[in-house]
Design brief:
Elements: H1 2-19, E1 20-21, E2 36-45, E3 48-56, E4 62-66, E5 72-78, E6 84-86, H2 94-97, E7 107-108, E8 114-115, E9 119-122, E10 125-128, E11 137-138, E12 151-156, E13 160-169, E14 180-189, E15 193-202, E16 206-207, E17 211-212, E18 230-233, E19 235-241, E20 247-253, E21 264-265, E22 278-283, E23 290-297, E24 302-308, E25 312-316, E26 325-326, E27 332-333, E28 340-344, E29 359-360, E30 366-377
Antiparallel strand pairs: 1-30, 2-3, 3-4, 4-5, 5-6, 7-17, 8-11, 9-10, 12-13, 13-14, 14-15, 15-30, 16-29, 18-21, 18-23, 19-20, 19-22, 22-25, 23-24, 24-30, 25-28, 26-27
Length: about 375
């Protein structure tokens, strides 16, 4: 079993390396494009001005980020013909993100994913968190990191441009213990890599599990679903959940419709998965930064590679998009209009002693890095 899975990893990695080209500007663009950052007003909230930052590299790739929720509103990358499209779901303006949205492009914390009944015991004390997903706590609570204004600072050099966001989460916010000091950096380089670097410190033991929540559709046409996208995930197991999406504690082999160890179309077996894909995959990266997933779209020839040292990645196939949301350019987001690949620790880890530890202690630093690299198939 081990040798077979290692062989799958080698083959999948070879396919990616052999089939991925660097993104270059289309012929009608200036090949002397510079690394740059632009800042613009994005509206007002609670007597504070919200800003939108545009980061661009020398290849013509660009991303847009607002300091409200650390939301990445757009990622523009070219297709096989050199045409640049936005490949993430979202809204045209701040007003859309102020509604009860499904976390489009946001920073998620203090704790990504679910905590059962919003309860956990730490150092002998019971904590009760905000309940915002059926009987459970989801993605940090009601007014979590995706709904606050972050302090922002830009930086750049010859090889990369970046936005450093800072937020101070006070003791007791959404029920969590301890003052948590958080920084998140979005970094775009000339290799068409988008790096997201997280750091956090605390003055009291507290659960921390941060992630990024973009919904990707590499076709660039959000009126099309992602079921024809091809996905590969380097994971032999996943965390089994109950009817409320809380892990049972079982780590089950991915044999059958859950198996993406060889690349396959998302729609191939989705009908055999109750409700669609919304599962935490147990990665084989051994806690080291490594390629853990690839996503490709044959129509546009775009590739996205995901690198992380986190022990899990949540693959969510946009099952709850139901046509009730009107997004960018008046498009209605229907079921499976986008998908998420969220690098993370496991759901409900504070209540699951056998899972990798998510408790941050005073005097230590939470560190996490996820890389989304974009390219083109040959």
């Amino acid at each position: 079993m081990y040798l077979r899975n290692r062989l799958y990893l080698i083959i999948a990695s070879f396919i990616v390396l052999a089939g991925c080209q660097n993104i270059t500007p289309p012929n009608n663009q200036n090949t002397e494009i510079r690394m740059q950052i632009n800042k613009a007003s994005y509206g007002h909230l609670e007597n504070n001005e919200v800003h939108l930052y545009t980061l661009s590299n020398k290849q013509g790739m660009s991303i847009k980020i607002t300091n409200y929720g650390g939301i990445m509103t757009s990622i523009f990358v070219p297709d096989k013909k050199g045409h640049f499209d936005d490949v993430v779901l979202g809204y045209n303006s701040l007003d859309g993100y102020l509604k009860n949205t499904p976390y489009f492009g946001a920073i998620v914390g203090r704790y990504a994913n679910r905590i059962a009944k919003g309860e956990f015991i730490l150092d002998g004390e019971e904590y009760n968190l905000a309940i915002n997903n059926g009987p459970n706590h989801l993605h940090g609570g009601i007014k979590a990191f995706d709904k606050v204004i972050w302090d922002a600072e830009t930086f750049q050099n010859d090889q990369e441009v970046g936005l450093k966001l800072h937020y101070f989460s006070k003791d007791g916010e959404e029920g969590y213990p301890g003052n948590l000091d958080v920084t998140v950096q979005y970094i775009l380089n000339n290799k068409n890599e988008l790096k997201i670097v997280y750091n956090a410190t605390t003055d009291k033991a507290t659960p921390v599990n941060l992630t990024h929540h973009s919904y990707f559709n590499l076709s660039g046409s959000m009126d099309l679903d992602v079921l024809d996208h091809t996905l590969w995930i380097d994971a032999d197991r996943y965390t089994v959940v109950d009817e409320t999406q809380i892990p049972t504690g079982e780590l089950r082999d991915v044999e059958g419709p859950m198996d993406f160890r060889t690349p396959k179309n998302i729609g191939t077996f989705i009908a055999n998965v109750d409700g669609g894909y919304d599962h935490n995959y147990v990665l084989n990266n051994n806690g080291k930064l490594a390629l853990v997933a690839t996503l490709t779209d044959s129509s546009s020839r775009r590739i996205m590679e995901v690198y992380t040292a986190e022990p899990g990645v949540q693959f969510y196939s946009g099952n709850f998009l139901d046509g009730s949301i009107t997004g960018k350019n008046g498009l209605i987001y229907r079921k499976h209009a986008g998908l998420c690949l969220e690098a993370q620790h496991f759901p409900d880890s504070p209540n699951q002693p056998a899972f990798p530890n998510t408790i941050l202690q005073p005097g230590t630093t939470y560190k996490q890095q996820t890389v989304y690299k974009f390219g083109l198939m040959k």
